[in-house]
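WP5 quarterly update. Target: Actin-like ATPase domain-containing protein. Source organism: Apiospora hydei. Length: 566 aa.
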Amino acid sequence: MASPVSVVIAFDFGTTYSGISYAFRKPGQQANPSPISKWPGDAGRVSNDVKVPTIISYNPADISDFKWGYQVKLGDKAIVGIKLLLDPDQKKPSCLPGSGKRTALKTLPKPAVDIAADYIGAVYEYAVKEIRKGSVGRFFDTCEREFVLTVPAVWSDKAKDLTLQAATKAGLGTVTMIKEPEAAAIYTLSEQTLGLQKDDIYVICDAGGGTVDLITYEVAQAYPLELAEVVPGSGGMAGAIGLNKRFEDSVRDLIGEVQMAALKSTPDGWVYVLDQFETGIKRKFSDDSFDEPYYVHFLGLRLEDDPSENLEHNDWSMKWGDLHEIFDPLVEDVIRLIDEQVQSSRKKHPFHPIKAIFLVGGFGSNSYLKTRIEKHFRDVQVIQPANAASAIMNGAVMYRLANGPKIVSRQATCHYGVKAWDSLTTLEDASKPAWLNPHTGETRVEQMEWHITIGQELNEEKIKLNFFRTFDHPYSPEQLEVEDHLYFSKAKSPPRYPDCPEVMKCCRLKTSLYPARHLMRKTQVGANNRPYWKITYDLVVTAKANLHFSLEINGKEYSSVEASYE
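Structure tokens (predicted):
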């Protein structure tokens, strides 16, 4: 007999660090998230962070053998930024150099989705052992497992699908997805319930290693807490990993190309230098450390002293100004993204106060970032909640348990629609390629039919994409295997025609009309003097963190829909 208790396991798959939190769902009892706090190879770790590095290192002689997380040591040839490889088309801020992601993809030992699956699977397998240790006897093995996977709000639909594929390959089974800033909001605002009032507005800024995601919520109801998304979420590639890239450029400017090449070819050389910045300088830098030097030692090099650049005895004494040059462009990009959310919210609800900006995520924990944001938004409180780094995975557990704030509405961030042949109504229509329906003799022009538009309120309701097909008789079962395409656009106004460069393919939808063949209706004789058969159907979209599809006819669900992302 199955246990009445289930276990919810949330996986925060991050760019630089990942984490897992879990809770047992018990009938009639409140459950609280518990993060996994110990990881293989983390002995002697000073940080209180409960996460594990998102890094993997393969054995060149056997790519089924690999090390991950803290098991990877200085000098190991490792793959970092695994998550970013799943969305190589994501735009970067102009302050960052080209990352060569597309070139990197060609040099990987496996496809990016398989590397992500290896990492996710290893982390999950270890976490299960840790959770099992904390349960009595074989109790854990009797529990049904529910999985939640977090994804950036700025992720493309294709990247979300690849992330889901990786989780499936890793053995996680059926997975529910949630946007990272939404999970962070559920956790952070659940801790603030005594101070929340109806119509208050809160901006959630999830600044992680690779991405910065923003969502703004309004308190729709204070108790029990319900939140409504105010404006479409936004974000970009302004995460903390960009600081590492800018630090690398600063080192290259300091020591020159020849010594930089020598540093990177020295065992542990560059890895050691970067580790000093990553684990020490980047975390400690603050706006009140004006007189405090930050030291970088160049292991294995013999550099000429240059007192004017604070370089002596292979040590670089980084000053306040040096770090400002590294931090400021990315910090300014984060401030710009927050300001866009703030201004859009004030424009939509000018009399609803923006009470606070919550900073979560690894970069969101940085004190310099907080100080700069406070200086820019002097009339808004900036809060770095306790356990900011684990807010996302804890919030993801609460989302599945439904014991945190309820998100009652979301805002669409893209236009979604399909191509449709419509009647010619304008002069511009007449200039477009036309189609003569062989059955009806009507001349039509291809236009976009948008079913979801940017800023549209989404309440997890089903959105129906209407289609019809006509078939000459007799028709074969193979002819009833049909394909349609879903398109998207981020243009300010939804484009009218599909040949607009801002209209892009989202995914190909394959389904079978064969189970509904009895609903075929014989119609009038067409222009070719032959009868034809027609069926009308709906491809139904449910828009949550990712898109879900089903086939319906007259409100009844029929065969499954396979989505292949372009």
